[in-house]
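W.,

You were right to be curious about this one. When I first looked at the sequence I had no strong expectations either way, so I just let the prediction run and decided to look at it fresh. Below is the sequence, 156 residues in total, followed by the output.
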Amino acid sequence: MFSLIYVAANAQETPEAQNSHFGGVNTRGDQGMGFNHEKTTHHFRLLPDGGAIEIQSNEPSDAATQDAIRSHLAMIAGMFKKGDFAIPMFIHSTTPPGVRIMQRLKDKITYDAENTERGAQLRITTHDPEACDAVHDFLRFQIQDHQTGDPLTVQK
């Protein structure tokens, strides 16, 4: 009987721990990104030559959030170019997979922020296979930690 209670209690802790982590990601994300995640939608795309981070405001008329998104992605494009991944490390409370390789191969990766109608996109491009694998690892981690439901496979 004790074993069944112990197993049942531990099985219930796992989702709570996951929810606690996700809540922390959201709270730190709001601080690190400079906007309320509940007012936005994130997507992380794995592409043959790298990938993309897309953020848009949920409300077409929310100019303040759209401006904050654009500022954030422009800022992290500049930081990532220098090998500075402090913001995702803060948001996730860990060094995301792929970051160390992306830092080492920073001269083989380009980061271009582009405004979209309701936010912005950060396009990450490389022709180096090791760097591309690292970008994909980084984006897969983002998909899972932000629980976006985006495909974990490379999209054509």
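Here's what jumped out at me. The beta strands are 40-47, 50-57, 109-116, 119-126. And, maybe more interesting for your project: The first strand starts at residue 40 and ends at 47.

Coffee later to discuss?

I.
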